[in-house]
Amino acid sequence: MCGIAGIIDFEGRPIDVRRLEEACQSLAHRGPDDRGIWQSQSNGWSVGLAHTRLAVIDPAPEAHQPMITPDGRWAIAYNGELYNYRALRDEIGSERRTASDTEVVLQACRAWGPKALERFDGMWAMAVVDAESRTGHLSRDPFGIKPLYHTFVDRKLVFASELRTLVGLLDQPLDIDPAAVACYLQLGYVPHPLTIYRQVRKLPPGHVLAFDARGPAEPHRYHFLKPPPTPAPDYAAACEQLRALIQDAVLRQCVADVPLGAFLSGGLDSSVVVACMARRQGSPIRTFSIGYADHARYDETHYARLVARHLGTEHHEFRLSFADILAAVEPMLDHLGEPFADSSLLPTSLVSRYTRQHVTVALSGDGGDELFGGYWRYLGHHYLNRYRRLPDAIRRPIEWLLQILPEARSTRRLDRLRQLRKLLRGDLPDPMDRHLAWARFLEADVAAELLGQDRAREATRIVGEAYREAVTSWYADNVPELEPLQRILLADLGVGLPDDMLCKVDTASMYHSLEVRVPLLSTDVVDFVTGLPLEYKIAGTTGKRILRDAFRDWLPETVIERTKMGFEVPVGEFFRNELRELFADAVTPDALAAFGINPQPALQAFDDHLHRRRDRTEHLWALLVLCWWRRKTRA
Fold first, then answer.
1. Is 276 one of the annotated active-site residues of the chain?
2. How confident is the model at residue 567 (pLDDT cuts 50, 70, 90)?
3. Pairwise CA distance, residues 294 & 577, whole Å
């Protein structure tokens, strides 16, 4: 993986090379092995590209970036891996100077233009420039594994892998977007194409932004899902086909000229990926997991050890203390270019740091929950329907008990009660609205107190539209008839996955110069799984049904049948102890008011949490991240 940045000036003004050098320094963690700058200027048009390289395929100096064609006409700044580059290289047949996938990507874009993107199997964010015709494009991979930010100001298209790098390339200050802040407080992240700044956008997954001498066009989607097959394959045949597709995807992604391993949490998704690697590797693969020495409630390393023994991996396990987590808080908050409130970023960063001591590339099981229905929210619709059928005489005492029992996450039982409260509070008629109510950080009444009724309602509208539009945008032609839960899975695949899960993994891993690959998000796997009937994926109270059955013979039954366990940290308890002063110092009335947040209910929530009247963990963490970001960036 790498870091990219650039400026395209449509007035032809000289590019300030010092800005590009600063961009390279800002992105050094994404590419510690090499860096480069390329500039070109002609009448009424100038361009500057910056690149920092993490050398994975063909680490030789000849694969330096930005990469330029021998005639000096074409240039590319590329952050990614193309897994089918050998097949495309043979098809293009051009003379080659390197063994890198970057050269193949450049040759493919030169030969086929943006249409080349439809033929790529990989993950990327890139900029391609034709200096002679003064054209080119920015693009991002189909599912948003790699990030790309862009803005068009003062007749300049400016872009970068990280938001803070982009800000450093600009001459003018940026305005915080109140709508983005409100959406962030609802979801814990800013959904694309929004960013925390009004003038900056995230390039959506599967989109390309073309430009010519006149300026940039609007981004448009180049990648679409295949429509579901008719008729659907029978279940047994689907299991066989799924296993073959995942195994092939894993094999393709094991190509590297540097040490390679895999994350192994002991959950189903990562275990499936490791099982596929183990069956194809001649020597034991290296697997990595972390657990908590202080609290078994948050530890699942025994499952990882079970899988490692079963598959014969060279397993590495790192035991975290809560002190390790706390020590990571301030550095990670300092690193964020945009507020991001998924606290599992902390352990993800630590397992990445530990893994990078042994390998440069790690495969992971990310994407499995969104594809196969692994989150409790998907099963919540089934549980809610069952609950609704209970007589009022039973429901009333249950709801009374939920009112008086303490809110906490300290034990599994209390955490289940918390989820049940959320389930019932989100009991809305429309399934998508219900799903978003369960996914949101702030309940509707709390959001209204913090933001005001109108602003909270507008954020709910924006988030709802983003999720609904994600469903329809997946298909080039008519959207197939889909069950409500199928639509929810596609919405999460289009919004929650790139903006939360994949953003978290990219941020945490690249902070430590570790490349993470996600074979479950290979395009052929995603096309196949999204085309399957819902009951193949979710059956009653069982999620990931077909993934479990497809790999039942390859993994221990304990792992196949275990329930999902999140990658959590006890942030709620930290707020009552170790993080109490940090929160009080950062989350001040002035800091909150700068974002248009009503300080009184925010600080009351902190007091309620301290005295265990209500659990406000996610609420408080989101506020801490937001206010810390403002102080760090002086926004």
1. no
2. low
3. 15
Spatial contact of 579 and 326, defined as CB atoms under 8 Å apart: yes
What residues have CB less than 8 Å from 58, skipping those under 6 apart?
Answer: 98, 99, 100, 101, 257
CA dist 390 and 375 (Å) reads 24
Dihedrals φ, ψ of 286, to 5°?
-95, 125
Closest CA relative to residue 427, chosen from 419, 438, 416, 417: 438
What distance lies between CA 493 and its chain's CA centroid?
10
The model's pLDDT over 123-174, given as tens digits with 9 standing for 90+, comes to: 999 999 999 999 999 999 999 999 999 999 999 999 999 999 999 999 889 9
Phi, psi of 13 (to 5 degrees): -70, 150
Give the residue among 45, 63, 64 at the shortest CA–CA distance from 7.
Answer: 45
| Distance in angstroms (rounded) separating the CA atoms of residues 565 and 267 | 8
Please tell me the pTM assigned to this model. 0.95
Calpha distance 524→80 (Å, rounded): 18
Render pLDDT for 7-65 as a digit per residue (tens, 0 to 9). Answer: 999 999 999 999 999 999 999 999 999 999 999 998 889 999 999 999 998 888 888 99
Percent of the chain at pLDDT above 90?
76
Angle at 99 between CA 96 and CA 100, to 5 degrees: 105
Which residue type, as a one-letter code, is found at position 383? Y
β-sheet with 515-517: strand ranges across: 314-320, 286-292, 260-263, 361-363, 515-517
Give me the catalytic one of 2, 183, 276, 627: 2
pLDDT tier for residue 374 given thresholds of 50, 70 and 90: very high
Residue 232, judged by CB atoms within 10 A of its CB (0-12, 13-18, 19+), counts as middle
User: Rounded to 5 degrees, what are φ and ψ at 258?
Assistant: -135, 165
Residues 126 and 78 sit within 8 Å (Cβ to Cβ): yes
Long-range contacts of 83-86 (CB under 8 A, 24+ apart): 83/121, 83/122, 83/252, 83/253, 83/255, 83/522, 84/119, 84/120, 84/121, 84/122, 84/252, 85/57, 85/122
Beta bridge partners of 208: 139, 220
In whole angstroms, give the CA distance from residue 164 to residue 23: 9
- Which tokens go with 221? 């989607």
Rounded to whole angstroms, how far apart are CA atoms 565 and 59?
A: 38
Closest to 335 measured CA to CA, from 101, 4, 628: 628
